[in-house]
Specification:
It is built from eleven helices and ten strands. The protein is an alpha/beta fold. The strands form two sheets. It has a six-stranded mixed β-sheet. It has a four-stranded parallel β-sheet with strand order 5-4-3-6. The structure holds pyridoxal-5'-phosphate.
Length: 291
């Protein structure tokens, strides 16, 4: 079992929120583990248990060169005594960046694959090729999103978020796995708002519904206007906002949590949240390479 540290809930004070009597809170889930932090802890939890149960000694997964999932999987594998293999999209660039050199220092074997190969990574032929090349392994998909990851995030929602009884729960969306978990784990009147960090993020609605299988939930929606140009793209407005938040002791990253918290401020300014609401932002992590 990975170590889990209980995480605090802290308020964000701002005049914008005072006007409409909003309580804005942040669940600092980024502090749940010093290396396998944020939503990645919950996405990996049942996957690690399953890999152990099946007697695997190697984890194999995919990601881009800046992937928080690669970072977390490499750390979790070392912590739990697995070997690990990371298939990284694109060409190898030396020196390795912080994410990849950390992964390598955890013993992760890195293999760089072309963008075309990477796109085909879910085909049966490619998986077969991987088996003949690397032998037996427990496969974790890109971003760590699979049914067990969704189950982990649902457990997070039930154990840590439901008792807080907030009107709104907000989080950034990459693949949608974490959002699907929160949606299935939270019942009752709490509304979940996902902030896609990719451009044209409405396709993620279908992805999230797929992860939710045949159940239909109406406790969630996506706000697709806060992508700031697309995945890992940023603007001076966003960077300035992150800088301001840093000064009030809330560290955010420009890929995920910065965009979500910016979105919450903007929605509050526009009167989206009814007066008196409590809004909880999930700090999903992503700080390990920027501090
Ligand atoms: C991976 C990641 C996400 C996205 O999670 P999904 O389950 O893919 O939607 C959000 N925030 C941070 C900090 C992440 O590292």
């Amino acid at each position: 079992m990975l170590q889990y540290n209980e995480t605090p809930v802290i308020p964000i004070e701002n005049d914008i929120f005072k006007v409409s009597k909003l309580t804005i809170l942040v669940k600092r889930e980024d502090q749940n583990h010093h290396l396998v932090s944020g939503n990645k802890w919950w996405k990996l939890k049942y996957n690690l248990e399953e890999a152990q149960r099946l007697g695997h000694d190697t984890l194999l997964t995919f990601g881009g060169a800046f992937s928080n999932h690669i970072f977390a999987t490499a750390a979790a594998a070392r912590d739990q005594g697995f070997k690990s293999i990371g298939l990284i999209r694109g060409e190898k660039i030396l020196p390795l960046n912080t994410t990849l050199s950390f992964a390598e220092s955890c013993g992760m074997q890195l293999h760089f694959i072309s963008r075309t190969e990477y796109r085909n990574k879910t085909t049966p032929e490619f998986k077969e090729e991987l088996r003949s090349r690397f032998g037996n392994f427990y496969l974790i998909p890109e971003g760590g999103t699979n049914a067990l990851a969704v189950r982990g995030c649902a457990a997070f929602a039930k154990e840590k978020i439901a008792p807080l009884k907030c009107n709104y729960v907000c989080l950034p969306v990459g693949t949608g796995g974490t959002t699907a978990g929160l949606v299935s784990g939270l019942s009752g009147p709490t509304q979940i708002i996902g902030f896609p960090v990719l451009k044209n993020g409405s396709f993620l609605e279908e992805e999230i519904k797929t992860h939710l299988k045949h159940f239909s939930f109406c406790n969630w929606h996506l706000q697709t206007e806060y992508h700031f140009g697309g995945y890992a793209k940023t603007t001076s407005v966003l960077l300035e906002f992150i800088h301001e938040m840093e000064k009030s002791n809330l560290p955010l990253d420009p890929v995920y949590t910065g965009k979500m918290v910016y979105g919450i401020f903007d929605l509050a300014r526009k009167g989206f949240f009814p007066s008196g609401s409590t809004v909880l932002a999930i700090h999903t992590g992503g700080l390990q390479t920027i501090q």
